[in-house]
Design a protein that fits this description.
413 residues, alpha+beta, seven-stranded antiparallel beta sheet, three-stranded mixed beta sheet, 11 helices, globular, Beta-lactamase/transpeptidase-like protein, Diverse_Enzym_Activities
Amino acid sequence: MEALDRILDGFTSPTTGSLHGAAFIAVNKHGEIIYQKAAGRASASIDNVEPLELNSSYWIASMTKLVTAVAAVQLVERGILSLDEEVRDKIPELRHLQVLQSMEQGPGGPLEPKLQPVKGKITLRHMLTHAAGFVYDSSSPVLQEWSRFRGRTAHTFTGSMDGYRHPLVFQPGTSWGYGAGLDWAGQLIEYVTSATLEEYMQANIWSKIGASSTTFHPELHAHTVPPQMEMGRRMSVGQGAKSIKPGRVILGYPLKDDLGGIGLFSTPRDFVKLLSALLQGGGPLLRSESVDLLFRPQLSDVSRVAMAKLLGKQMRRVLGVADGDDFEQADHSPAGAVTLKDIPGRRRRGTASWSGLPNLHWWIDREAGIAAALFTQIMPPADAAVTDLVLKLEEALYDVLNGPSQSHAGPKL
C-alpha cells in the first residue's frame, strides 16, 4: 500500500501539501483493516508539529446521517416504525407544518411569506432521502428571508432543533433538497423509544460493535474520547497548506439536542467498525434484508432529477455525475447517495457514500467488498484539494487490490 502512503504524505506535506492533516482507513468484506494511516499535523498552526494520530476525534458532521439512518432502519426492522407512515402523527411539533412557496413583496411593506398546507404525508422514507422538503436554512435564500421576516436568530448550526423549526420548501416527494430530514428522524427515534438519540445509539449501535469514542457530547466523555484534531480554515486557493489557518467547529456546542444529521464526534477506528458491519451484511446491527433496504435507491424520477441539479461540483466529482443534467448516475438511499453505474477504476454500481461538512468522506462498495473513510477537519466545505485526495486514494486502493491482471475484475479481497 505504499502508493496510498505517498498520496497521504504528499497532500499533508508542510512544504508542498494542501492539507494540515488527514487520516484514511479501509476495510474488506471479512472485517479486516486493509489500510490505515494518519498523516500530517493535528494542529492547523504551521508552528505546531504534533503529528496527527489515527485515534484523534473529529466532528463528523453529516456522516452522522448514516448512523441515524441505521438507527431508524433498526426500528423499521422491529416493527416500531414504518418507512411510509405519517410521521406527524408521532412528532407533535410537525403537525402544523406548512410549505413556504416564496417570499413576496407586500403592499408597500417588506417581503412576506406565501405559505400553503402540506399535501399528503411526510414519511420517514422522505426524511431519510432528503425528499421531504426539510432544507437547511444555511443553503436556502428563501428560508433566510423568512427568518429575517420572523426575527428568527436560530439557524442550521445553532446546536439545537431550533435551527430546524421552519417551513418546508417544497411538497414532500416532489423534489429533493439537502437538509434536516435526518435531524427530524432523530427526533422521531427519541419519541418512539423514550430515549435520547445518544442513549439509543450507545445501546443499539456503538456498544454492539465495540466503538467507545463516538458521542454527541464529547465534553461529557473526556475519559473515552481522544483529543480532537484542530479545525483548519483555508484562507485562499493556490497556496497549499500555507493558506490554512486555525479555525473552529461552527456547530454550537455543547449541543442542546442530539442532532441526528450533523451532531456526532467520532474517530476513524470507531466509524470504520460501523462501515465494516454494514459491508459484512449488518450483523450485529441489522438483518441482511434491512441492509439491502438501507442501500436501495429510493427517489422518484422527479426527485432524482432535482438531486442531480442541486449537487455541488465536488460531490458530482465523487459520484461520477457529469453535470447537473446527469440524473442517471446517482440516486439516494436511506444510507446516502448511491452510484447507479460503475466508475472505471473506482467504485462499483450500487456503492453508497456521503460526506461531512469539514471535508470528510465515506463509501461502502458491497460489490467490490470495500468500505473506506477519509477524515479531515478543514473548512469551508467542498474543498477541491480534499476531493482530489479522496479520488486519488480511491483509485490507488482499487488499483492495488485489483492487481495488474485484474483490470476488469473486482478487487481480490
